[in-house]
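Record now logged for everyone:
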Amino acid sequence: MAGRSTVGLLLVAALLGFLQTSSTFQVNNPDGKLCLSANFSMKFTVEFSTKSKKEITTFTLPPDAHVVNTSTCGNKQAPEEILIVGFGKGHSLNMTFGKNASLYTVSALMFKFNLSDSSLFPNSSGELTEVKNGSDIQADLNTKYLCHSNKSVTAGSVSVVLSKAAIEAYIANGTISKKETICSEDKTSTTAGPIITTHPPLTTSGTTTSVPPSAKPEVGQYSVNDSSGICLLASMGLQLNLTYSVPNKTLISKVLNLPPNASSSGKCDNVTVTLNLTSGSTSIFLSFAQNSSTEKYFLHGIIVSANLPSEATEKSIKAVNNSLSALKATIGKSYKCVAEEIIWVSDKASLNIYSVQVQAFKIAGDKFGAVEECQLDENNMLIPIVVGAALAGLVLIVLIAYLIGRKRSHAGYQTI
């Protein structure tokens, strides 16, 4: 029985180890006091070039990930706090934090990959790649940012899924706060968001209005065509997350849902397809490109603009990002993602996309082609399958151990 118990305990420990994949990273100031703590899981999807074609590799943050000693706490001369995590053969991620009177934010995310690492990038023709982007991670000062849900960040040829996050920057007196700022993805529809304030609603001269961050936008149906036929089909719910300042230098975050009946227009071209959506003074411009060598199309550009309420220090906001590689799929097929995807546009705006199915360029008739699912949906389906299989394996092994032990116990008796 002792042997069977030991086997069972080892299997349970192994299963718990599989489920617990987040890592903790901490930075101390010169006095030895904790100033920054971050616990999270991270999955990377990186596109890289070989001599003959483009390849895609996917991997998670490995157990050897560690805090690099150039990480730093902020001071009066340089108020930014920086967490640098190194892993593998010369890879790293960099989180830069900033703050104002009431909030701290992850103002920039940077990723460096050593493409000479053949274990992750086999046959790569490159040496080093570096990409940088912003994020919508922010929380009240003296609170811990919590987000168990998946958050997707796209930066150039790199897509990152951050989950199981518990982060606090600018820690007071070296002690992690017991107060929490819960991310909008984890909140229910009856709960206000982490930093939405009671300032006047952000309304524009149309039907786009400020909403609680947990209120999902309605899904709209859009298409673009020319004399040759349809070049873009899209079904998606769109939400803008805007950040602006008020005279006392406080940062305010507002969420806008684009109505499904927004005015749409666009243009078909051999190398680009555009979709322009407008509701009142709010507009979202999406530009898709294709890569003929890889036979892939993707969202490569976003321009968003909106009027701001009278309390804001600026009358309007405009943000542009033309270095994206999001919503990628094979030409002739449609990209589909049920999970929310967050695409960073600038430090003032991000675009949240819900229940998206989109196809650009080669479209047969007026219907979507075969579906290519996003990594987030595949992860959501894979985790319960793997856990279920692991539990089934655990039960089977314990049963076999029990039967073997029972057989041995009977072997100790002989018939007289």
Observations:
- The two ends are 27 Å apart (CA to CA).
- The longest strand covers residues 229-245.
- The helical segments are 2-19, 375-410.
- Residues 22-186 form a domain with the Porin fold (CATH 2.40.160.110).
